[in-house]
Model the fold of this input.
Amino acid sequence: MFIARNETQMAMHEKWLKGVSAAEMDTRLLSNSEIAMRVPGGAEKWAGGIFTASDGRAEPTLAASAIAKAAMAKGAIIIEHCAVRGLATSNGKVSGVVTERGEIRCDQVLLAAGAWSRRFLGNLGINLPTLPLICSVMRTKPLQGPANIAVGAPDFSFRQHQDGGFIITQRGALDAPLTLDHLLIGTRYMPQLRHARDNLRISLGKYFLKDLAMARRWRNDRRTPFEKVRTLDPLANPALNGEAMRNLSAAWPVFQQAVMAESWAGVIDVTPDSNPVIGPVASMPGLTLATGFSGHGFGTSPAAGQLAADLVTGHPPLIDPTPYRFERLISSH
Done:
């Protein structure tokens, strides 16, 4: 359920619903009283909302593990704790993947490296325009909440965790640490910046220095940034989590009783148009990308994975891949 504080926000939900009318979903618009009926105990009056009862939700750790096990049951081999250093090519085409443990011969590679993708491709001379944003999240200890419906408001969101606690974030704010890439490709993001400036907490600090210290070029027989930093694990921003909790508690006072159990953060790789790149790289036959999901990777991953698999294997694609082609980001630059 997404809820709106004013008519402008509500108009965005109405526009979205019209845009997906052909999909025949069970999505419906809600009045303030209908929101109160489904998520009782609220203290704010909302302009309205939009709700899709059939939407799914999942615990990311459990879902990712289940997907991996299902892939292995179908013959996939998953190698963990093994960084990829680069690609091997023959006659301009992909012929293998070079890892820290040796080379794996192949003629098709799918790169789904999230926020690492730009740096990896840059070493191959391929310019993928993505910039980082950091989302901070918290989980409460078990709490008798207002509903088991996941709710997104303009400045908070919450969903119930499997242990009875709630996952909470400041949906209206993200940390935007400046990096060298902002100087290199930042002008590509000016339309987004004008639209979402109030949602970004721009800063210049340790993240810039850490990013600057990471190599951007390396040989395949040398240690790479992916071996020096195995996991991108930024610190959560307690101020943003505090904002989320205050905003949520004002809207649903039951959350004033909440006790934080843990907090964390994650790096989001954002493209200039906020759409992912799912498609081949023409300059390197055999290389296909599935990256730049701009914060929507987990939710769209089943369909995105199917589309990427179709493209790699030459099957008729699940949907029209044109909106996600890599060339859209390089055609005018």
User: Anything to note?
Assistant: The domain at 60-130+274-329 is CATH 3.50.50.60 (FAD/NAD(P)-binding domain). Residues 77 and 99 are 15 Å apart (CA to CA). The chain has a mean pLDDT of 94.
